[in-house]
Amino acid sequence: MEMSGRTSKKQQRCEQWSQSIGKRRKFDGPLDAFDGVGRWISRLLRRLLGEVTAEDPDPACWRRAAAAARNRKTSVDQTVAGRHRNALMERAVRELWAESRDLLGLHSPSPDDAAASAVPRADLPPTPLAFLRDHVSPGRPLLISAAATRHWPAATLWPTESYLTDALRSTAVSLHLTPDGRADALAPRPAGSSSSSSSKCFASAHVRRVDFPAAARLIRASDPAAGLVAYAQQQDDCLRGEYAAVAGNVDAHVPWASEALGCLPEAVNLWIGNAHSVTSFHKDHYDNIYAVVSGEKHFFLLPPTEHHRLYIRDYPAASYVPAQAEQEAEGEEQQLTRLKLQIEEPQRMVPWSSVDPYPASLEEEAASFPLYFDGPPPIRCTVRAGEMLYLPSMWFHHVSQSPGPNGLTIAVNYWYDMQFDIKYAYFNFLSSLEIDHGSSNKPHASEGDSEEDD
Ligand SMILES: O=C(O)CCC(=O)C(=O)O
After folding, report:
1. Which residues form a coiled coil (predicted)?
2. Whose C-alpha in 125, 194, 235, 305 is 20 to 30 A from the C-alpha of 247?
């Protein structure tokens, strides 16, 4: 997803891996056979296109509207015919949101039960067949209780104050630094930067290699009030790379998921942060098994069918850099205090979700992005220490966290290559449909699935 640091790595991997799709899989047949959501989307899209065609004014009216728009140098969609078409599109897509949630059985819990989630919960890990049938094939999340990781040595070792610091005493790790805990997220464009109409940019963290004990200290002390938030979140299979010394404390893969998906994970990542690190809305081309070891992770989820609600637009890429030239040697933590944002040169654009679910001004954000704020609430799911979330590929997620007793939130996730099947094609087609809901909702040139994920 980072288009600078993080996303470009994922993007490269995705390109390489997508070339090898199909070589390792055992279960291509059954996945297609259970592809209920894909078929449902196809049915809805056919209906939607049928309605738009059937209810459009006659072709002569369309031609007149298009000519009038050309003469006035406005878009066809600003004409009466265009607005009529947009209204139909929006109505049909809103129906799709409701019907796909219904199809997946993701019903909002009672508002009286603040802790409840629409995500189905299992006390024990599923069998591979049940996981494939009930979750992977329909693309339906699953939360699995602490029984899933109770046998991991990490479950007891990592939440302590000192185990990781001792085990990784002389290990340099990649630390992602931002002033406010929002890496790979939109930020106000730095003053003086030119050549883009957007007032925002896509900001990537400043990445430093730091000895783990110093990294843990910086993470615990992270605070936007002090202008520095550190998050260890290198997404390049880092548990088996930088953190290899402690990789044996967790399962090398998730056996029931590997069996169901017909492959081993492509990447196993470690995430260590405190309450100030937030991951903005995005999606990934992976089936994700996300296990929390210490603290809690709070997910906001939107199914891929709700693509339009996130207003994915192109933003110029920017990176945080030290405000003054760094003099310290690698491994030292002093002077890591001030960062400034710089637009990347040569400029490149990153397609990213425009929506911040916790904006400074809710009124302003809701007026700019009504499809998100007026639509069904995102599906909330808190994953507690010991629990595992299955997050199907292409689901949008926004993640915040609460630390455990050691002052850290620690999680491991297993990314499995997704199946680039007919559902993928349907979602791409859906995302290419334009809903012109006010000026904030104009699709960007590269809309489709080249996108913010990886
Ligand atoms: O834990 C986080 O901060 C983000 C996790 C995430 O985006 C992922 O697993 O894909």
Report:
1. none
2. 125
